[in-house]
Amino acid sequence: MGVVLGVDERWQIVDRERASLADLLEDLSPEEWETPTRCGGWRVRDVAAHLTMAARFSYRDGVREMVRARGNWNRMVHDSAVREARLPVAEIVANLRSIIGSRALAPTTSPREPLLDILVHGQDIALALGRARPMPPHAARDAADRVWTMRFPPRPWPLPRARLVATDIEWTRGEGEEVRGPIAGLLLLLTGRPDAAREWFARPAAAPGE
Known about the structure:
- The chain has one domain (7-201): Four Helix Bundle (Hemerythrin (Met), subunit A) (Up-down Bundle), CATH 1.20.120.
- It is 53% helix and 5% strand.
- The protein is built from ten helices and three strands, in the order ααααααααβββαα.
- The protein has helices spanning 7-26, 30-33, 44-53, 59-68, 73-84, 89-98, 113-128, 137-149, 183-190, 194-201, and strands spanning 163-166, 172-173, 178-181.
- It has a three-stranded mixed β-sheet.
- Helix 3 packs across helix 5, helix 3 (44-53) runs parallel beside helix 6 (89-98) and helix 4 (59-68) crosses helix 5.
């Protein structure tokens, strides 16, 4: 349903999102870097550090982190991000800028994960700080489709038992009670962030389109 993003277009969006998020992070106060987010209690600095890792860490790094986490995927993601977040904030921002243009992927992930990660975690950071961060509807739709079909890496949240209908772009999935809202809000709902989704649903409606 709708236009499928091409590989190059997807990476171009990832690059723009990484650059704009680095700009946002660069202007944060020390207190803002420590702000808790709705992403499992991670602070802004933990989320930001996590976003720098997939494109920078080698396969060997990934294996080492998995061994440290005793094979638990979610623990590995959490613990490695918290360790990386110990870096000075200027270095975290520099690491994020350094991967603009990179096409490197974390082991076992598809080329769709970087877009999903930067869109959702960018919202984790922005909403925690009370900032508005637009999300391109066509990019959010691509990420929502990825979540809907994801089997591995494991999705840590169940899919909503509802019929999801986007109000700003052509996209419908699921069965049950209808939930309508902008595709960005539906993406946040799909990734286990109902409170963040409700914030998007409460925003003034935009005209449907690409």
